[in-house]
Structure formats: C-alpha cells, structure tokens
C-alpha cells in the first residue's frame, strides 16, 4: 500500500504528464526531447519525467515508478529491437542491474502490485524519445531480471486472464502495432531527416517508413537499413512495382508508366523521377542495405517483365 497523500500526488502527476504528452506529440512531431522531459513542470515545480542516467524514473517522494526508458543505440551497435516479446507475446523490460530487490526494480514491482500505469520512453535518436502510454507491468520475472509490459488496456485484460497459445499471435501483433512499428517509423524518418528519399517532400504526416523487404520475408527485420522514408505516393508506387530502386540507389519507373499521358502528378511525381538518385541518410550505418535493395529490385524487374 501507499499513503493517501502519495496516491493522490502520483495520480495527478501521471495524469498531467499524459495530458501534456497528448498535446505535445502531434502527427507531424510525435517525438519529444530529453530537455523537454527533464524540465516538465507540475504544481509549480520541475519534476523530470525521466532520470538523468537510469532507465527507471521514480521521483524522490514516490515509491512507485513513473516511467521507464529504452535508450537509443546506433544501428550498427545493436540487434533490431532489444525488447523482444516473450513467449506470451508481451514485451519484456529489463531490471536495473542484477538485484531484483534494488529500489528501482522494487518500484516497478509496486506498480505491478498496485496496477498503476507508467510511461515508456523509447529512444529513436540521440536525445529524442517516442512516448508510449499508458503501459502496465503485468508480470514480474525476477529470475530473468525482467518484467512483462502490457502496451494498452486490451493487452492488460488479456494478460490478467492468462494468455493462451492461440492468443499469443494476436498479442504479439498488437505489440508490433503499438511499439515496434511506431519506433521503426520514427527511426527511419529521423535517419532521412524527415524527407522523402525520392522527391524530398518534408511533411512528416505525409511520409511513411517503407520496408525494403517485407515483414514476411526472413530478412524483413524492422531495422533502419531495411527501411526507406517515402512520401505516400512513392510508397504506394514502390509497393505496387510502379517504381523500383536499384542497389546503386537509382530510381526506375516501369516502362508502361513512362509511356502514359496523364496529368501533372504522373509527369512530375513519377515520370520525372526516372534515373534519379535517392537521398541517403547522413549516417552511413543507417543507409539502405544493398543486398535487400537488390532482392527487392529483382521483384520489381520480374513484375515488369
């Protein structure tokens, strides 16, 4: 149990933080900076929403965790998505250190026991985080130094009843939709400086993170090197094999499309892209995988034969 005073303060703080994030994180700018999170104001005081150097944030006057953080690591220093789903399809969050009784870890356990929601800040670039909230700790696994996290109320309800084998695939799909897909999108969009790699359109809400190799492919991992920032027109054209991207980063437009006569969108948006070189991420380790491009380009060629 926690005191009435702490329970009231905790509930008001969490509600205020989530309302602020609702307003701050828009479709055009869904990520928030470390500086903003460190300077959050509540009841006339600065209360940081994440910790300076720890993954679990518990303000000094609280016994229950407020937020958890997954730190950004560069593309060439990590396996894609460290927070892999467990056997039940739910994401796992690792403890701080190797002692389950360390106070950070106890604060997560208390959130589980009291059914108190948290905010998960997922690093998508240095100093930039994609917030996911509210999330709930639904299982504690001290032997593995981790806990299970439900990404929304539906996952929380399913976990409370016990996740059957048939439900696992559904829960894992929900996990991808709520965490992995948004994180993949933000990492790809940031790598390409919020710009379509083909036409340089810079409106974030009109950009997609397109997979080079699809999810169903054995190598279709949600990694930046398997992604391209494309405007919605060029994403659809890429998926429909109207345009292809060669391993040398050149754009090809399907022959029959080049021969068509239509309005300005076809002429300027597609036909004039023939032979263009895509704009690459500044960081070399984030550039598209040439083998993946070659495989996908072969699919384009087969479709145009």
TrEMBL record:
Highest taxon of source: Bacteria
For this UniProt record, the keywords arranged alphabetically read as follows: Endonuclease, Hydrolase, Nuclease
Q: Name one Pfam family in it.
A: HNH_2
What Gene Ontology molecular-function terms does this entry list? endonuclease activity
Q: Where is the HNH nuclease domain?
A: 196-245
Among InterPro entries, the record links this protein to: HNH_nuc
**Name of the protein in question:** HNH endonuclease
What organism does the UniProt record list as the source? Actinocorallia longicatena
